[in-house]
Amino acid sequence: MKNRTVIWKGFLMLLIGLSFCNTKGVAENEKPNKKSKKSPNIIYIIADDFSYKDLSIYGQKQYKTPNLDQLCKQGIRFSQAYSASGECAPSRSSVMTGLHTGHGRVRVNSSARGQDHLLDSDITVAEVLKSAGYATAFIGKWGIGQPQTEGVPYKQGFDYSFGYYDQVRAHTFFPDYLWENDKKITYPANAGFDMNKRYANNIPNPPKELLNSYDEQGKLILEEVADPQNAVFSEAVFEEKALNFIDKHSEEPFFLYYATQLPHGPVIIDSLGNMKDRVDIPQKQREWAAMVQRIDTFTGTLIETLKKKGIYENTVIVFSSDNGYSMAGYMGRGNAPKWEDDPWLKNKGPFTGGKFSIFEGGCRIPFFMTWEGHIQPSIVQKAVWLPDLFSTFSELANIKEVPKTDGNSLVPFFKNENTDIFNDRALYFSRQRAQAVRKGPWKAFRADSDAPLELYLVEEDTYNENNLAKDYPEVAIEMETIMNESHEPSEWYWNPWETRKDFEEKKKKAKELGQDLPTIRPNNIDRLPWEKKGDS
C-alpha cells in the first residue's frame, strides 16, 4: 500500500502543480484547467447510522420520506449494498480511499494510538477530482483526521471544509465550536450543553427526567445553555454551508461530500416537526424519525436549489448510510448477532446483527444514485459497496488514470454495459479479530483466525441461520483463503490473528513512543460512557 500511495500522491501533486502553473498570467475568469459543464457535479449525502428501513421506500411505515423516496425511484437502487464496515470511521475512510478494512488506513473507530487518521500519503477521491478541475467541499462529520493532523479534510483534497473533524465530538448537536478549514468557529450561545445527560439518555426506555424537552410546537427547549434563544444546531449550519457552496460553484463542476451527523445518537433534534403529534410512539423513536425527516427535507431543498440554478440535470446525487442498523442511537452491541429490531420503527431490515458488527445487519445499507436524463430507474440486485464510489466518481469525471482500489466503477449500470465483474467478486470485511467475505451468493464469517468458518447463502438466508460450511467445503476453503490473503498487517490496529494481549502491547508501545493520540470529548465532558475509569 505504501508504494502505491507514495507514487500516486506524487503524481496527483504534479497534476495540481501543473494546473497552478498553467493559470499564471491568465485572466481569472478563463480558468483553463476547469472542466466544461459536461462533467457532472457530484453530491454525495452520507447519513450517520441510518438504518436499512429508515426510508419509506424501503418499508418504513411510521413516517414518510418523500424527497429521498423520489430520488430513489428515479435512479438506481442497489438492493444488496454494503458499507465497508459496521462503524463510522473505517466506512468513511473507505469512501475516501476506495480501500477496504484489510488495506485501508483507518480500520476501526480507534487504533492502539487512539482515534487514528489518514496520512498525507493516502490518496482520496477528493484529490483525484480536484486534480481534474473540480471544486471540492466537505461539510459535516469527517471522523478520519483530528485537528492538527495530516488527516484533516483540507489537507486531503477539499478546497473547503466545515464541520466536526474528530469522530466523537460529532455526537454533539450543539457544539461549542466547529472547524472551517483550519479556523475554529466558536458558538458561545451553546456553552453549557449537557452531553453527560444525553449519553445517560442513550439507553432503551430512559427515565423521564433524562428525556429532552420540547414545547407544544415541537421545538426543543434548551434551558441549560448560555443563550437558549441563539443556540446553534450544527445541522442547520451544515445545510447553510452546503447551499452556499453550490451557489458559489454552480458555474463549474463541483464535488460536495455532505456527511450529515444525523440520525446518530444520542438522539436530539431542534424540532420534532410532524412527529410532535405522534404520541403513540415513544419520544426517542419520534426524535430519531424527526432526524431522518430533516435529512429528507434538506434533500428536497438541495434539489430545488439545483433546479433553480439550472444544474439539476448535470448533477449526480448519491445517498447512503455509513453503516447498518442502530436502534434509535442506542449504544452498540458489538458483534452480538441477536440485536433486536426496534419495536416501534421496525427499521432494522431482515438481517442478523447491527452496528459494530460485520454481520449483515452491521453492513447492509440503503444506497442509491440518480442523474436526471442519464440513469434509467432500476433496481440492481448485485452486491455493491461503498469502496466502489472512488472508481465511480473518477469515471464520472472522465478521469482515465486512477490508483488501484478495492472497488469497481458503478457507471456500467448507468449505461447498461457489461456488469459481470459484480457477479463473483469478493467483498472483504474485518473488525478487530472478526472477518467476513461476501462473494456471489455466499457470505462467510469467522470470529477470529482460529475460529471455525460459518458459511451462508446470504440472499435467501439473511438472518444467517443455516451454516453450510460442512456441506460446501470447497467454498469454505475458498473463503478462508480470501480472508487470509486480504488483510495486510497493521502496525496499530488489532489484526485478526492477534490476541488481546498483543493489542495491549501495541497500546503500550504507542505511549512509549509518544504516538498515542489525544481523546477529544464532546463539550469538554470528563469521560465518555465507553471509557474505563481513569481514562479521562
From TrEMBL:
Compositionally skewed regions (Basic and acidic residues) per UniProt:
505-514
Listed InterPro entries: Alkaline_phosphatase_core_sf (IPR017850), Sulfatase (IPR050738), Sulfatase_N (IPR000917)
Q: Does the keyword Hydrolase apply?
A: yes
Q: Which residues form the Sulfatase N-terminal domain?
A: 40-399
Q: Name one GO molecular function term.
A: arylsulfatase activity
Cite the source lineage. Answer: Bacteria, Pseudomonadati, Bacteroidota, Cytophagia, Cytophagales
- What family is this? Belongs to the sulfatase family.
Residues making up the signal peptide according to the UniProt record: 1-27
Q: Where is this region: Disordered?
A: 505-536
Tell me which species this is from: Sediminitomix flava
The family database entries (Pfam families) matched by this protein are listed as: Sulfatase (PF00884)
Q: Which UniProt keywords apply?
A: Hydrolase, Signal
Keyword Glycosyltransferase (UniProt): no
What is the protein name stated in its UniProt record? Arylsulfatase A-like enzyme
